[in-house]
Amino acid sequence: MPDVQSTVLEFVNKLRKRKIEGSQATARCTVELLRSVISQHRVPHANQASALIDAVKAVGEQLVAANPVELAVGNVVRRVLHIIREEDLSLTTAAMGGLDLLDASDDDEDVCNKGIGYPAMSAAVVAAAARSTLRPPSLQTLLEGTPESATVPYTSSSGADSESKTADKSSITRKLKHDVIESVNQLIHEIAGCHEQIAEQAIEHIHQNEVILTLGSSRTVLEFLCAAKEKKRSFRVFVAEGAPRYQGHLLAKELVARGLQTTVITDSAVFAMISRVNMVIIGAHAVMANGGVIGPVGVNMAALAAKKHAVPFVVLAGCHKLCPLYPHNPEVLLNELRSPSELLDFGEFSDCLDFGAGSGSPLLQVVNPTFDYVPPNLVSLFITDTGGHNPSYMYRLIADYYSADDLVM
Amino acid sequence: MWRRSASFVLDKHQNNKPISLTPSIDSPPPHSMADENSNPNPISAYYQTRAAHHGIVTSDWLEQAQAAVRRYPERDYSVSPGRPFSVIEEFNNWRQQPDLAEAVAAIRALAAVIRASEATTMMELEIELKKASDTLKSWDTTSISLTAGCDLFMRYVTRTSALEFEDFNSAKSRVLSRAEKFGEISCKARKIIAVLSQDFIFDGCTILVHGFSRVVFEILKMAAQNKKLFRVLCTEGRPDKTGVLLANELAKLDVPVKLLIDSAVAYSMDEVDMVFVGADGVVESGGVINMMGTYQIALVAHSMNKPVYVAAESYKFARLYPLDQKDLEPALRPIDFDVPVPPKVEVERSARDYTPPQYLTLLFTDLGVLTPSVVSDELIQLYL
């Protein structure tokens, strides 16, 4: 385990020093780290799912604390926890039927089939309880009371199958880890491939002779626009430069290299040019549960301009950017202030910014926030790797990807 | 345009009808919920007018007409021969407790029905429960949480029996224990909602509250206990004086409170950071039905970009879809002005209004923090 610990600490340091740029890279590294944590963790025979969950949670808490603004870390940790719970559930429902251990693809079917040849109360009730741990709380489960934890299925299965299942139990042990790692590999694959999935949908949204506005630089947006170009749509792109980092310049260069007609404008010119634009497309840093978007600074302004001129505002986000939390003060709590040197040249302004002179705190303050929050009513459409969705639908995706128990870390 | 003015004329005819049709108002209204008064005019004039104009008999109208006809015999309906058990009595007993929500009292009353029942199969039990539930619902057709609570319980019972138990007695006892535990769920629900909302109350914020909702009070109580610094603006809440009652309770907790008359809401909305209201019922569209004045406040808040948060337990979700204010069953209550009002002057006596979902920001329920669009999802999952 010291091996894993050192990799964890290394990663935590990288996060704290903001060495890893971009949510996709962060998400990938986090998942790979968690995969090695899981594979190297020695699980006891009983309650192994909880052991895994605890191990992952412990590491996850450290990671989230290192960089709380990078929401992709927390998202991905919660995805892994959800995967563990799901795999555990499917294994127990398979095991309880006394059938061969199969990856139970449909939990409900399995339970109904097994209900007949079993003491009806124990198997079905326990299965129902286990099922309800995985679903978010809903009106349906309201009257079923507090569901027993996922550990109960183990004790009942050990009670009912005492005779011949010791061999099966040890294979259950190995199977859980194996299944979890398989699913985690799938998750990595999903994260890596999110750009292609989103870019596939470009052709439906971008039409001939349109003018697209974007802000800053996002790899998803780049791939999206290029995919439309590949399919022989001809359109123009306005790129707002995204001060103070001026990443719009880089995006403009890339677009020109791929043969797209591009115009660079300043951020202040967005309101002036918006009436000539057909659609605004931006990449998000994170999407919150209420459909709000955390994006690079300046997107709120673009969103307001788009709303004013009834221009569709489309947000591209890979699934690792969906966060199950509700923002309650996003401008402050989910923002990061970067170095003032990006705005002002310290040499010229050294006398204003000097802490030593006068009363001790300088008269000139520089605020350089990294992110902006766009409320859900300004967003027209979200394009994720599963398709296009309304902002009011985001809670559904979140309910599918995450378990309610993992929300508070 | 013509419909409205014409209905105005027909309404007058309606009001001249004999008063014998109205049942007496049962008990003095409890302090918190104004909608518990029995509807003095059970047949909504609105529906009658529409039916007359369009020549269509709508199903709601038919139902209400039938209910009105059945009203008196309905009283004895729940008392089957040979059994002195009345679900209405049971319900009233539970309702006396001030902390118990109405839906919870209804479920407890239905639990008592199960306990007293002599049925031997699930089918019989369900039929008895259905009868009792219908009685409860018709006793006060205007109460949404009552209807929703009864429906929720009926769904639960019918779902429980189908799959999981072969033995009737064990099924019955499970349903019974669940129903009795539901009272705890209500209190737990309030605690859960309070915990969920804590993050949204930040230090130095100003909260506008309308109506005396026990859930909202729990939220504010917990925030005060967590040593958060905030102040509360209470609307007066005429004619129920909810504002004064809430202000008294908050003053006991050392929370700075300011009372406003209902008309001063727009005037003060500038300094407000968020609006908190409870709900009598949450409808399928995600909108809420709450004390009269909530819609007004939500409109003002929306126009000034202030968030409106609704705190409601999940058993208040109802299968209604009002399209406008008049689509609700009117819950009327007496309003007294300090000066005598001449009889030919009409008084708008409705006790509640409907706030459409686009003016609400978030709903805090025991199922979690929800956006208004989630409500229909939840309802579909339960009722389909």
Automatic annotation (TrEMBL), chain A:
GO cellular component labels:
eukaryotic translation initiation factor 2B complex
Composition bias type Polar residues, residue spans: 140-161
Residues covered by region (Disordered): 140-172
Q: Which InterPro entries match?
A: eIF2B_beta_subunit, IF-2B-related, IF_2B-like_C, NagB/RpiA_transferase-like
**Signal sequence interval, chain numbering:** none
One Pfam family this sequence matches: IF-2B
**What GO molecular functions are on record for this protein?**
guanyl-nucleotide exchange factor activity; translation initiation factor activity
Similarity comment: family membership: Belongs to the eIF-2B alpha/beta/delta subunits family.
Q: Which PANTHER family match?
A: TRANSLATION INITIATION FACTOR EIF-2B BETA SUBUNIT, TRANSLATION INITIATION FACTOR EIF-2B SUBUNIT BETA
What this protein is called in its record is: Translation initiation factor eIF2B subunit beta
Query: Whose protein is this, by species?
Result: Microthlaspi erraticum
What is the organism lineage in this UniProt record?
Answer: Eukaryota, Viridiplantae, Streptophyta, Embryophyta, Tracheophyta
TrEMBL record, chain B:
Does the keyword field hold Cytoplasm? yes
Keywords from the named record: Cytoplasm, Initiation factor, Protein biosynthesis
One of this protein's Pfam families, by short name? Answer: IF-2B
| Coiled coil ranges | none
Per the record, the major location class is cytoplasm
Q: Name one GO cellular component term.
A: cytosol
Where does the record place the region Disordered? 17-44
GO terms, molecular function: guanyl-nucleotide exchange factor activity; translation initiation factor activity
Localization terms from the record: Cytoplasm, Cytosol
Subunit-structure text: Component of the translation initiation factor 2B (eIF2B) complex which is a heterodecamer of two sets of five different subunits: alpha, beta, gamma, delta and epsilon. Subunits alpha, beta and delta comprise a regulatory subcomplex and subunits epsilon and gamma comprise a catalytic subcomplex. Within the complex, the hexameric regulatory complex resides at the center, with the two heterodimeric catalytic subcomplexes bound on opposite sides.
Homology family: Belongs to the eIF-2B alpha/beta/delta subunits family.
Task: State the protein's name.
Answer: Translation initiation factor eIF2B subunit alpha
